[in-house]
Design brief:
- It contains two helices and 17 strands.
- By secondary structure, the protein is mainly beta.
- It has a single domain (3-201), classed as Nucleic acid-binding proteins (OB fold (Dihydrolipoamide Acetyltransferase, E2P), Beta Barrel), CATH 2.40.50.140.
- The strands form five sheets. A seven-stranded antiparallel β-sheet has the order 9-16-10-13-14-15-17, with no helix packed on it. It has a four-stranded antiparallel β-sheet with strand order 7-6-5-8, with no helix packed on it. Strands 1-2 form a two-stranded antiparallel ribbon.
- It is globular, with a radius of gyration of 22 Å.
- It starts with a strand and ends in a 7-residue tail after the last strand.
């Protein structure tokens, strides 16, 4: 993938950077692997807004991605690399030997015609899905399971990868993209390679209208509102709010830890880095 810049004929195009889609080989998705994707507009089952700044956007169909890769020992050929509007990474269309088709998140440098497999003992080639115990240390991986058989939950974003640092007993030490080092069961599966589309983070939309196409509505600062609308609102002239930044419900929004304690916290060896390079 690469980025495309434009001649600044209009103010919008001066900083606009878009995807060139040169790595995409098929424009229309596989019909049997798509489903209707309904939008909520940030509202719950009572019609109340529970997640602000959402609404509108272009219609999409959801592509059913296989995060479990349970068809062991069967070779599959990459027949297409496709664009997925629901994620930053590309998706690859697999055709198995028995004719079954499925989507996976495309690893970087995977090309049409390549063969991939899933199973317990395989060579650590890009795109192969295997249990962590049989993946050598130092190799980048993605689509990592947290519980055996549940399907990939970690490291699925565009351009991300994790690194296996060591195998110890029943667990492996894995460094995640955030810098966190976590113990993960060696029975869990992971896919070899880095997720495709690493330039996704460098895309610049150029205008507010393009974010509306993505389903994001405008954000208004709390200090610009009235007291009835936000805890930081009101005041004579331009005020800074006069208190610690909070959300509309009064929850501190900067420097306040909101992560709840989880049972899996005991598997964290080292917390994520405070400052990312």
């Amino acid at each position: 993938m690469g980025l495309k810049s434009y001649n600044p004929v209009t103010p919008t195009q001066r900083f606009l950077k878009t995807d060139d889609f040169k790595d995409v080989t098929k424009k229309k998705p596989e019909k049997s692997l798509t489903r209707v994707l309904k939008k909520s507009g940030g509202r719950n089952n009572q019609g109340k807004v529970t997640s602000r700044h959402r609404g509108g956007g272009s219609k999409r169909k959801y592509r059913i991605v296989d995060f479990k890769r349970t068809r062991d020992g069967m070779s599959a050929e990459i027949t297409a690399i496709e664009y997925d509007p629901n994620r930053g990474a590309r998706i690859a269309l697999l055709a198995y030997e028995d004719g079954v088709k499925s989507y996976i998140i495309a690893p970087q440098n995977l090309r049409v015609g390549d063969k991939v497999m899933s199973g317990e003992k395989l060579p650590p080639d890009t795109g192969n899905c295997m249990i962590i115990a049989n993946i050598p240390t130092g190799i980048p991986v993605h689509n990592i399971e947290l519980n055996p058989g549940k399907g990939a939950q970690l490291v699925r974003g565009a351009g991300t990868s994790a690194t296996i640092l060591a195998h110890e007993g029943k667990y492996s030490h894995i460094r995640l993209p955030s810098g966190e080092i976590r113990l993960i069961s060696q029975k869990c599966r992971a896919t070899v390679g880095m997720v495709s589309n690493p330039d996704y983070s460098n895309i610049h939309y150029g205008k507010a209208g393009k974010t509306r196409w993505l389903g994001r509505r405008p954000k208004v600062r709390g200090v610009a509102m009235n007291p009835v609308d936000h805890p930081l609102g009101g005041g004579e002239g331009r005020s800074s709010g006069g208190r610690h930044p909070v959300s509309p419900t009064g929850l501190p929004s900067k420097g306040f830890k909101t992560r709840k304690k989880k049972l899996s916290d005991k598997y964290i060896v080292k917390r994520k880095s405070k400052k990312r390079n």
